[in-house]
Design brief:
The complex is a heterodimer of chains A (221) and B (580).
Chain A: H1 3-11, H2 15-21, H3 48-58, H4 66-79, H5 94-104, H6 109-127, H7 136-146, H8 157-175, H9 178-184, H10 199-204, H11 211-216
Helix pairs in contact in A: 4-5, 5-8, 6-8
Chain B: E1 6-18, H1 22-33, E2 38-41, E3 82-83, E4 92-93, E5 103-104, H2 128-132, H3 142-156, H4 181-192, E6 198-199, H5 235-244, E7 249-252, E8 255-262, E9 268-275, E10 280-291, H6 295-304, E11 329-336, E12 356-358, E13 373-379, H7 413-422, E14 426-433, E15 442-450, E16 456-461, H8 466-485, E17 489-492, E18 533-534, E19 537-542, H9 557-576
Classes of the chains: A mainly alpha (221), B alpha/beta (580).
InterPro entries (chain A): Gluconate_2DH_su3
Pfam families (chain A): Gluconate_2-dh3
Protein name (chain A): Gluconate 2-dehydrogenase subunit 3 family protein
Chain lengths: 221, 580
């Protein structure tokens, strides 16, 4: 980014937000197509009132500290790791999504910020380290204590509540990303001619269309 | 306020229409094609589905992944501007009452995102008082509206099937889409419960209608409006922009109507409005004024249009304006269908809405409530959005996943497996029923409160009666039986009981409000005559849901379109005869 552009961005206090809008991690260079004005670009219809709101969101300072973002990244990748089918939560930029969504939905702010601190304090008591600095084994130990609501100990309930929210946000962020949608195998959102349930699927469920349905419904060849 | 003044539009129109949804769009279309000069006063901004696009966007195109905001309560891709609460435009409720009020603010209003469920009223629906002694009969019957339903079918396009049902009339239908997998399960389970299931009737083009519009691309996104193919009905795509080609329509957008203006003879002369862009006051004159601002906004406008000749508000000698307000009843539940776990993936988006539905199938004489409901169904492999698999810890410990019993919650590769396994197994259903319109359910002008434009606001006073609550109970019992019959597990909506009125929707929540400017033969008991024309002001018409005497268990849009077409042609005739 050239200096003039960066000054302009700072002037409109859109720097932190701009990074999110274009999907860059903090510290990364901005993409070349970032408008010189620092105006956020939207790929879907926005009315005037929405634009005002979106800009105010993007102009906010970063909600999570660098330490918290690093913790979110580690924890997110424990929840959604890379496997043989698809990449991890951080590959899908889930931490950036969470940074945005807590601004859009402030009700998540205290549970997330407080939950992250709760996690660090638990780790500090057990291992004398913050969560992100613990060994993988130590991280899994604490995650196992809060990831299973029905068998977690009573004194871990606040951690369970936090982890459930973190799991929800991580799954939502991941499965609404390009990587996650592909992982699920969602095959729509593209022009189609709906010709009915595929034959092999009908057969699998021992179902069939009635004569009436076949006759009265639209078919494509 | 030294420079306060009211600017008069120099151009005189044949008709000034307030609102641009189904009723206003149809009136503009008919009048403009007849050569009349029309001015549409719209409270929201201009909106062109060809430019304002959310169709075919991916979840990640929305920074909040399709979640809702105050500005788009139905989600970030939904095509309707407005919502449950508008900045600077409050409304109030009488203590102890509830009313949810959706107000669209844009060209085309709610037609840009509605469910496209396009049901004709049947012969019984116009004559309910004669059947069960409740409410009132309409001054017209099915035979009066049938020719207009036929023409709306042909002009706009609708799919469905002719079933020869007594109170769910046949129409001029395109072929419906085949049921999806969950819909075959639902159909079998409902049929087993004695509930009739037939192809749905939606105003979506499954076949070619004309050169102006394309055919459905089965993306399931009618809620986003069909920008690419114009294959579903919205007022902008199908009525307003095509009618603007006549050169006979001017649209004044961002214009909040304040009053209907009248002269000393008590006739309407035009509309005054505040332009949101410059906050200046304007007046526009027309030979005829047509209200299509939505049931409640139209009644508000009438009640705020007081003059010496119309001291009780315009068209309100009967004192019924604002009264008989009623919405559809609603109740719903949903869950998962274990047979669909780990299912094969394919594109089953289909049309935007259900492929099959259940029209009312019972005889109320054998039931403890009046009036019926229809059932809408959903499920399957939809586009993931914000909230996807939220609360999976309540699901993944309850079922074997790939043959393994897991502990609820979890993380890691196992959690990814669970997400794939459960995807596309959701099913659910909702009832939409007919409420009894009563005088004691109403909106009125709040004597103490104005909006940011200084326009007095509405105060609502609506309560459900036993009829509606018992109907919701019946819905829930029916839905549970259908879910049970196919082995589905209810995950929400199954615990309602008499303590929460069986989970009935709040009045207004279903967004089918109607009845506030009702028609009738007796000027003492109705605001409009059978031509949607004010008894007390012959060049004033109301063509939205306000004019409805009752609203059946049929979504009201198709009838709004038919009645608006009918009223508009009456206006043309009367203008020709110099009667207006």
């Amino acid at each position: 980014m050239d200096r003039r552009k960066s000054l302009k961005l700072i002037a409109t206090s859109a720097l932190a937000g701009g990074a999110i809008a274009t999907g860059c991690k903090p510290g990364e260079e901005k993409k070349a197509d970032t408008p010189a004005t620092g105006e956020p670009k939207f790929n879907l219809d926005r009315n005037a009132e929405e634009l005002k709101y979106e800009k105010s969101l993007l102009a906010q300072e970063k909600f999570f500290s660098d330490h918290e973002m690093a913790t979110l990244t580690v924890l997110g990748d424990i929840i959604i790791p890379k496997d043989e089918v698809s990449g991890s939560a951080s590959d899908a930029k889930v931490p950036d999504f969470i940074e945005f969504i807590v601004k859009d939905m402030p009700e998540h702010q205290i549970p997330m910020k407080g939950g992250l601190r709760w996690l660090d304090m638990q780790c500090f008591k057990r291992f004398e380290k913050a969560f992100k600095d613990c060994s993988s084994q130590q991280q899994i130990e604490i995650v196992d204590a809060i990831a299973y609501p029905n068998k977690a100990k009573a004194n871990m309930k606040q951690g369970v509540t936090f982890f459930s929210l973190m799991r929800n946000l991580t799954m939502t962020g991941f499965y609404t990303s390009a990587i996650g949608v592909k992982d699920l195998g969602y095959a729509g959102n593209t022009p189609n001619k709906w010709n009915g349930i595929p034959d092999d699927v009908l057969k699998q469920y021992k179902l069939s269309y009635t004569e009436k349905e076949l006759k009265e419904c639209v078919s494509f060849t | 306020m030294g420079d306060f003044q009211v600017k008069k539009q120099p151009k005189k129109y044949d008709a000034v229409i307030v609102g641009s949804g189904a009723g206003g769009g149809m009136a503009a279309y008919i009048l403009a094609h007849a050569g009349l000069k029309v001015c549409i006063v719209e409270a929201g901004p201009m909106y062109d589905p060809q430019k304002n696009v959310t169709q075919f966007k991916n979840p990640w195109d929305s920074p909040r992944r399709g979640a809702s905001t105050k500005m788009r309560p139905f989600g970030d891709f939904d095509a309707c501007y407005g919502g449950w609460s508008l900045e600077g435009e409050p409304f109030t409720k009488a203590p102890g009452t509830e009313w949810d009020w959706w107000r669209a603010r844009m060209l085309g209003g709610r037609t840009n995102h509605w469910g496209r469920i396009s049901l004709r009223f049947g012969p019984k629906d116009f004559k309910r008082r004669s059947i069960d002694g409740l409410g009132d009969d309409w001054p017209i019957g099915y035979e009066d509206v049938k020719p207009f339903y036929d023409r709306v079918d042909k002009l706009i396009g609708i799919f469905g099937t002719n079933e020869g049902l007594e109170n769910d009339p046949d129409g001029i239908f395109m072929k419906p889409p085949k049921p999806r997998l969950h819909e075959l399960f639902l159909k079998n389970a409902a049929t087993q419960a004695g509930v009739k299931v037939i192809p749905s009737r939606l105003s979506i083009l499954t076949q070619k209608l004309n050169d102006e519009r394309g055919e459905c691309a089965f993306c399931g996104q009618c809620g986003r409006n069909c920008s690419y193919y114009k294959a579903d009905f919205s007022s902008p795509n199908v009525l307003i922009y095509p009618a603007m080609k006549t050169g006979n329509i001017d649209v004044v957008s961002n214009a909040m109507a304040r009053e209907v203006l009248t002269n000393r003879e008590g006739l309407a002369t035009g509309v005054s409005y505040v332009l949101k862009d410059d906050m200046q006051e304007y007046q526009v004159e027309g030979r005829v004024v047509i209200l299509a601002a939505s049931a409640c906004e139209s009644s508000r406008l009438l009640l705020n249009s007081k003059s010496q000749r119309h001291a009780n508000g315009l068209a309100n000698n009967s004192n019924v304006v604002g009264k008989y307000l009623h919405d559809s009843t609603g109740a719903a539940l949903g869950g998962v269908l274990p047979q669909l776990f780990d299912r094969k993936r394919y594109n089953e988006d289909g049309v935007g809405g259900m492929h099959v539905y259940s029209p009312w199938w019972l005889d109320n004489k054998k039931l403890d409530f009046a009036r019926g409901y229809h059932i809408e169904y959903w499920g399957g492999m939809g586009q993931p959005a914000y909230g996807f698999n939220w609360g999976i810890e309540n699901l993944n410990g309850k079922y074997l996943v790939k043959g393994k019993q897991k502990e609820a919650g979890g993380y890691g590769a196992s959690l990814k497996e669970d997400n794939r396994y459960f995807y596309g197994a959701g099913v659910g259903m909702a009832g939409r029923g007919e409420a009894i319109p009563v005088e004691t359910n109403y909106c009125e002008i709040d004597p103490n409160v104005v909006d940011k434009y200084g326009i007095p606001v509405l105060r609502f006073n609506v309560k459900w009666s036993e009829h509606e609550i018992k109907q919701a109970k019946h819905m829930k019992e029916t839905f549970k039986e259908i879910m049970h019959n196919m082995g589905a597990v209810i995950t929400w909506g199954g615990d309602d009981d008499e303590k929460n009125n069986w989970g009935i929707s709040k009045p207004g929540e279903i967004i089918h409000e109607a009845g506030t400017v009702r028609m009738g033969n007796d000027p003492k008991k109705s605001a409009l005559n059978k031509w949607s024309q004010a008894h007390d002001c012959k060049n004033l018409f109301c063509v939205d849901g306000g004019q409805f005497v009752s609203q059946a268990d049929k979504n009201i849009t198709w009838t709004i379109l038919a009645l608006s077409m009918r009223a508009s042609e009456y206006i043309i005739d009367e203008l020709k005869k110099n009667n207006l």
